[in-house]
Structures are given as structure tokens and as C-alpha cells.
Amino acid sequence: MTLAPLLSAPLAVQLHAAAALALVPLTAVQFWRPKRGRWHRGIGWAWVGLMTVTAASSFWIHGIRLVGPFSPIHALSVFTLVNLWLGIRARRQNRIAAHRGFMIGIAAGWAWAGLFTLLPGRLMAQAVFGS
Q1: Residue 90 Cα distances to 27, 42, 96, angstroms
Q2: Residues 6+ apart with CB under 8 A from 10
Q3: Residues 78, 79, 84, 87: what is their CA dihedral angle, to the nearest 10 degrees?
Q4: 32, 50, 80, 113: which one has the fewest Cβ atoms less than 10 Å from its Cβ?
Q5: Handedness of CA 103, 79, 118, 3 (dihedral sign)
């Protein structure tokens, strides 16, 4: 494993990768801890913040261009931002099942996207597995 590919990447990629990597343990903690109280809420807001940074920073990454400067992964970013808002709104309306569904849906989408970053030739694959 080497950080060289990430450290030589553009700032948007570095920000995106840092936020996404921070989400990995935070997501695990959030899903396995009890679902009430200050800890869940505090970790949840940190998770929402990092997920927002991850999704928003993707709009400055254009490695795969299928529709102008964008790729299908950018649709996931739009999905994420919309569903973060819907998930927060559902929680504020005390619709816990809907809140849970939105947040699990976001986490599942990003887990799949994260796996695709490990395909040969991708930057994260180079960082994790070497050239």
C-alpha cells in the first residue's frame, strides 16, 4: 500500500478520498451502535458532513467522461445529496423507518461505488495494491 498516487492527485481527488476513507469506520460504528441518544446523533451529523463532502467533491473529478464532463458516478452524488436531505427531513418528522431507509440506501450505494474504485487502473487500486 502506498499513498503516493493519492498525494500526487488533484486536490478535489484528495479531499474526496479523505472524506470517503473517513466514512468507512464511521459508517461501521454508526450501524453497529445503539440507535438512540447523543452518540448516534453526533456520529450521524459527522457522517452526513463527510458524505456531503464526498458527494460534492465528486463534481470536480472528471476521470471518466460519458456525458460532457460527467459520468454515471455523478448520478450517485446527486442521489446522495437528495437522499441526505430526505433522510434528515424524515428524522425531523419522526419517520424513523424512512430515515433508516434513506441512510442505509446511501451507505449501500457508496459501498458499491467504493468497490469499483478498486478495479485495476483506478487510483485507489494503485494506492491499495500498488502499480
Answers
A1: 19, 17, 7
A2: 60, 61
A3: 150
A4: 32
A5: negative
Other beta carbons within 10 angstroms of residue 74's beta carbon come to: 19
Mean pLDDT computed over 61-77: 77
- What digits encode the pLDDT tens for the residues 25-62? 999 999 898 888 899 999 999 999 999 999 999 999 87
Integer Cα distance of 47 and 78 in angstroms? 17
- Is the pLDDT at 66 greater than 80? The verdict is no
d(CA 99, CA 35): 12
Q: How many CB atoms lie within 10 A of CB 86?
A: 18
| Distance separating alpha carbons of residues 110 and 7, to the nearest angstrom | 22
Task: Give the separation between CA 9 and CA 62, rounded to whole angstroms.
Answer: 12
